[in-house]
Amino acid sequence: MLVAFSVAPSGGEGRDASVHDAVAAAVAVVRASGLPNRTSSMFTEIEGEWDEVFDVIKRATEAVGQFGTRVSLVLKADIRPGYTGEIDAKIERLEQALPDEA
Questions:
Q1: pTM of the model as a whole
Q2: Is domain 2-97 annotated with CATH 3.30.70.930?
């Protein structure tokens, strides 16, 4: 399965508090998992089996929870049994489908 997720704290101190430290704590958990992953400006993607992916997401969410009194979690999953390597393969298929640049 391939899951894109975003996790952020709320209820932290300071009106201008940035969430980058909290997000960094979550991404550190994901990267330490050893599962294929990618982080962009809005989401982190992780690939693996159901239980291992959701264990990592749970731990990443708990890490963010240390930065506020509430946590917001957004998930999008592509569940396709029998397929692996889709974190890169989906992008490769997209690039092949795009017309060549002029």
A1: 0.89
A2: yes
